[in-house]
Specification:
Largest interface: A-B, 20 and 25 residues
Structural class of chain B: mainly beta
Shape of chain A: globular
Oligomer: heterodimer
Structural class of chain A: mainly beta
Number of strands of chain B: 10
Number of helices of chain A: 0
Shape of chain B: globular
Helix content of chain B: under 10%
Strand content of chain A: over 45%
Distance between the termini of chain A: 40 Å
Order of helices and strands of chain B: EEEEEEEEEE
Number of strands of chain A: 11
Order of helices and strands of chain A: EEEEEEEEEEE
Helix content of chain A: under 10%
Chain lengths: 121, 110
Amino acid sequence: QITLKESGPTLVKPTQTLTLTCTFSGFSLTTSGVGVGWIRQPPGKALEWLAFIYWDDDKRYSPSLKSRLTISKDTFKNQVVLTMTNMDPVDTATYYCAHRNIGARHDFDYWGQGTLVIVSS
Amino acid sequence: NFMLTQPHSVSESPGKTVTISCTRSSGSIASNFVQWYQQRPGSAPTTVIYEDDQRPSGVPDRFSGSIDSSSNSASLTISGLKTEDEADYYCHSYDSSNQVFGGGTKLTVL
């Protein structure tokens, strides 16, 4: 079965760079149509899409955050890594990674449990 | 880039029917599929409707989805409301470059 799990620091200081890792199982990021996305949710607020990487290494970013984000994959380790530079307290949120297979259906059908990141000095 | 607008909150009594709307700001609602997610406090979202009107296995047929090109919006309808349906609901769509989530609707069943 498909599982995803986010990992990374709980606390980062303003201006620092955040690195989050999504470790997954049950699928391969070499399979046509498959991708992994990152979505965040500030406390009490809405979901916000951040980035997405496809099986063919095509990468897409939220226009409002594009300059701060980098997404990459390691197909051997079954991991997707997101980096976000110049962190600010407004970036405090739960960060989720999620699976999507556009060859099957168009939703994010499997999500990780999320990891809370707090930005504070 | 487009936006998806949802009502902030809706409330209805158990056994009744409620509809949550999701309006696309630009581009046709029919040009890309719409998904709906349910999120309970402290949990990750789960899909209740994908590709406008498809229900994943395990989702009761009390949940249904539709799109309306005349209003450029999608709707999630929940009939026979149960207290367990109380949650936040998010619509989701995309274009060639971006994924977009609506602002979420808090459903209260009272």
